[in-house]
Amino acid sequence: xxxxxxxxxxxxxxxxxxxxxxxxxxxxxxxxxxxxxxxxxxxxxxxxxxxxxxxxxxxxxxxxxxxxxxxxxxxxxxxxxxxxxxxxxxxxxxxxxxxxxxxxxxxxxxxxxxxxxxxxxxxxxxxxxxxxxxxxxxxxxxxxxxxxxxxxxxxxxxxxxxxxxxxxxxxxxxxxxxxxxxxxxxxxxxxxxxxxxxxxxxxxxxxxxxxxxxxxxxxxxxxxxxxxxxxxxxxxxxxxxxxxxxxxxxxxxxxxxxxxxxxxxxxxxxxxxxxxxxxxxxxxxxxxxxxxxxxxxxxxxxxxxxxxxxxxxxxxxxxxxxxxxxxxxxxxxxxxxxxxxxxxxxxxxxxxxxxxxxxxxxxxxxxxxxxxxxxxxxxxxxxxxxxxxxxxxxxxxxxxxxxxxxxxxxxxxxxxxxxxxxxxxxxxxxxxxxxxxxxxxxxxxxxxxxxxxxxxxxxxxxxxx
Amino acid sequence: xxxxxxxxxxxxxxxxxxxxxxxxxxxxxxxxxxxxxxxxxxxxxxxxxxxxxxxxxxxxxxxxxxxxxxxxxxxxxxxxxxxxxxxxxxxxxxxxxxxxxxxxxxxxxxxxxxxxxxxxxxxxxxxxxxxxxxxxxxxxxxxxxxxxxxxxxxxxxxxxxxxxxxxxxxxxxxxxxxxxxxxxxxxxxxxxxxxxxxxxxxxxxxxxxxxxxxxxxxxxxxxxxxxxxxxxxxxxxxxxxxxxxxxxxxxxxxxxxxxxxxxxxxxxxx
Lengths: 465, 270
Known about the structure:
The complex is a heterodimer.
Chain A lengths: L2 E7 L6 E8 L3 H14 L3 E4 L15 E4 L6 E5 L4 E4 L5 H8 L4 E2 L11 H7 L6 H4 L6 E7 L5 E4 L5 H7 L8 E8 L1 E2 L4 E9 L2 H11 L5 E6 L11 E8 L8 H4 L10 E2 L3 E2 L3 H5 L5 H15 L3 E6 H5 L17 E9 L3 H14 L6 E7 L12 E9 L5 H17 L3 E2 L9 H8 L1 H14 L8 H6 L3
Parallel strand pairs in A: 2-4, 3-4
Antiparallel strand pairs in A: 1-2, 5-6, 6-10, 7-11, 8-9, 8-10, 12-14, 12-17, 13-14, 13-19, 15-16, 18-20, 18-21, 19-20
Helix pairs in contact in A: 11-12
Chain B lengths: L24 E6 L4 H12 L2 E7 L2 H15 L4 E5 L8 H12 L4 E4 L14 H29 L3 E5 L12 H21 L5 E7 L20 H13 L4 E4 L2 H10 L3 H4 L5
Helix pairs in contact in B: 1-6, 4-5
């Protein structure tokens, strides 16, 4: 096994930490890494694509187990839609495998670069969370290696406690070695998207609430800079699958080549350099212009058809877009708040961000429902994700503001999400998870990992040493 | 969530995790218990570093850590007892320190001993200890650190050489040799590591008012306090300089001394 001391970053380039990087190619090597860690007296964290915004896949001074090499799709049954893959396989590999046969992953993130292992560990959701739940609800079975050396198989029936804890468990109970998931049948490579504007936060949330039952996906773009009567204005994309027969030529639209995102913007600019041109706009004035222009463009209410990939993987449109935030990188603050209290909470948060002159540069809203996983982030309500640019000058003020946000979220009965939030303290986590949940998690941790071999920077931040 | 900071918990033995909005620079000071090492520990923690402090004397180290952590009201200094001459301990200790700190941005090799044999006297034991600590100790620490930084393509190494290494003089051949060797070793590291984005700073102090200065025979011109010396070192670190003298006048003094022809120099009693 080769181990290299390597500086690793998070996706937002806002944090970096050096680790001994070791690649796992077969499950036996995971065992060996646990042995090595024990011998060296350091800890292990698994890393897939490194797409988390925070410190979930960082382990300063410890071992980073690179799982991206274990990335085969080992079995695909196009009759039943059951797929089995190794944890390093990405959503990109997955959809490209299943779509030509008329299936689609039931839950995907806003980027297709993420790995299955990472998706399960964070228990990611998509724009259909209100309907399909998180990705964990579509896992039929998984196998994993525990730090004790045990190899286990979990399903909703078998080892159900571990099934519901390892999915959402932030990689802290064991390392996935194989995942079997149920795909969803589709009848076209296209989706029907209704796009319409909403004038303020009240209308925004009401549209998500009312639109959800009649659609398969719903997502809002929120103009984070508009204030006053327009606070929370934006655009809703309410989307549904096409029924059988609606697409005259589904075989064609489901081909991977017809799903691929265009490589040029306006037909001329290669996208790979676009982030350089975005950078000058990533400041308060520039982003006011971008938001306003986008809102004006969104005033036209219309319905259009869009490929699955183009609809879901918005974040992959501009490669390396996160670099446009500059040297300090970017962080995301995503809060999940019950539908009864969300409007008041986000009104307060948006106003605070305006008062502090620290507006978010991107705001995205979604509709959610609760789930049964142990470290769940979902509530019966909405989520609102805000991207902030980090600069040396802003750090302290932004930090204080996010502390305020945390207070508002907790007081509103909300939750935070550990694929995204990077500033949440152990005290805050305790307040929204509750002591009972954390005790349960710790008990499982003790059972699966008595020597605390699995630890990430996130784990030490949120669950303590 | 409350406005007032949480009271400092002396039983909690690990520093807080870095976050994007509260980034932490992490450093190691080898030879931190008093003199310039302690002053640098106070300075760097005040400037936001979290430090592992390494020295032989546990009581001094503990009280320094306690002082720093109490004044900043959080864990910012961790103590590790270690004798630089125990070379075999280094790899495991370094690994542990890096894991405890959660990373590493800076290593300062400050450990140094001085045993003046007295004019026209010879003392092999003293000379040997000076080489063992000042030179081989530095190599034992900085070799693995250099390898880490080279792989990580980032980092900063600070080595405390001395004006005493710029010329071999009658007073203390062993000390002159140890500091000349250290300066050359640091230069070689610099030439290896600059291409990997690692900065190596050589510091050559003149007289600094510490325990060690008491060993110096004769006059101690331009003596500065340890606090002044570490201010100079910190400024040079921030600018990622290669070599500094502190006090800075020593650059000019040593320029002259280095150019004194041997035919004259060997007749001097200085």
